[in-house]
Amino acid sequence: MFIQRRSPTRKLFPDTWDIVGGHLEPGESLEEALHREVVEETGWRVSIVLGTIGEHRYVGDDGLERLETDYLIRVDGDLARPRLEAGKHTGFRWITRDEIDVLDENNGVDDGLVRQIVEGGFALLRQIGL
């Protein structure tokens, strides 16, 4: 799974591991937002949506409640060299199921949300036989 580190200057969840994502723009569908955010945050293009990991409600450290829908996808592009969105992300890595504990450093900030989503992605991979 691909994870990226949020910049320490980010208002929400600064300097934590995260997954690619963002907010809907006016009039945009979830699928349109998914495709746009992947391009904006990595330079890659969505080649296929393998499935929906789930919906997650959370309250950010700004006090606002959010509803997030997470997808497992395949992308086209140079997987070794994502084009991280300037000012928003400072690093990235690919993790295996055995490396998921790296996400525990977020626990004091996101209550394990990113780990839960990534675990859901690995479970979906097993479910579809990948």
UniProtKB/TrEMBL annotation:
<dbReference type="InterPro" id="IPR000086">
    <property type="entry name" value="NUDIX_hydrolase_dom"/>
</dbReference>
<dbReference type="InterPro" id="IPR020476">
    <property type="entry name" value="Nudix_hydrolase"/>
</dbReference>
<comment type="similarity">
    <text>Belongs to the Nudix hydrolase family.</text>
</comment>
<feature type="domain" description="Nudix hydrolase">
    <location>
        <begin position="1"/>
        <end position="118"/>
    </location>
</feature>
<dbReference type="InterPro" id="IPR015797">
    <property type="entry name" value="NUDIX_hydrolase-like_dom_sf"/>
</dbReference>
<dbReference type="InterPro" id="IPR020084">
    <property type="entry name" value="NUDIX_hydrolase_CS"/>
</dbReference>
<protein>
    <recommendedName>
        <fullName>Nudix hydrolase domain-containing protein</fullName>
    </recommendedName>
</protein>
<dbReference type="Pfam" id="PF00293">
    <property type="entry name" value="NUDIX"/>
</dbReference>
<keyword id="KW-0378">Hydrolase</keyword>
